[in-house]
Design brief:
Elements: E1 2-8, H1 11-23, E2 27-30, E3 32-33, E4 40-41, E5 49-53, E6 61-63, E7 68-70, E8 78-81, E9 84-85, E10 93-95, E11 97-102, H2 109-125, E12 127-128, E13 135-136, H3 138-145, E14 150-151
């Protein structure tokens, strides 16, 4: 089992979160990329899946005939899945993102401490919806209240 926190964020909210990740000096990696590619990255792209770690030298990639990837269950990582647009519903419908700490294969106290700091950032800077259990970034909330963006969740967000 792992631990997770779910949220909605715009690209602007994600940029603020990214700045905080860099402030913590966590290394970030794309989850997958072209065959033989270096997955280490210093910049997040909206809609992508990333892995964060404080043990860069411990990250092992695998390569299939299609891509190079990181196995989350066998590496000391925190998953950061940014929100993404659910185009089947329309251009302004967002799927939630999450931060997920994997602790099934190992127990890493220092990485778990980073996970707790990331969760603290979300809880401090995002608004909480009791009906959904999701947090919402400031930009997302502003656009949601103007009906410019929508959450792909069957229950409305109670954020007013």
């Amino acid at each position: 089992m792992g631990k997770q926190i779910n949220f909605y964020q715009t690209e602007g909210d994600m940029c603020e979160f990214e700045a905080y990740v860099h402030q913590l000096s966590l290394d970030s990696f794309l989850a997958t990329g072209p065959v033989g590619s270096d997955l280490h990255t210093d910049h997040f792209t909206f809609g992508e899946l990333y892995y964060l770690t404080n043990e860069k030298e411990q990250i092992h990639t695998k390569t299939s005939e299609y891509c190079t990837y990181i196995s989350s269950s066998k590496n000391p990582v925190i998953e950061f899945s940014s929100c993404r647009i659910q185009k089947e519903y329309g251009e302004n419908y967002y799927l939630n993102g999450r931060i997920y700490y994997f602790n099934e294969q190992y127990e890493n106290e220092s990485l778990f401490a980073y996970y707790k700091q990331l969760v603290k950032f979300i809880k401090k800077n995002y608004f909480y919806s009791k009906t959904t259990g999701f947090y919402c970034g400031k930009d997302f909330l502003e656009e949601y209240n103007k009906k410019e963006v929508f959450a792909c969740n069957p229950r409305p967000l109670d954020l007013f």
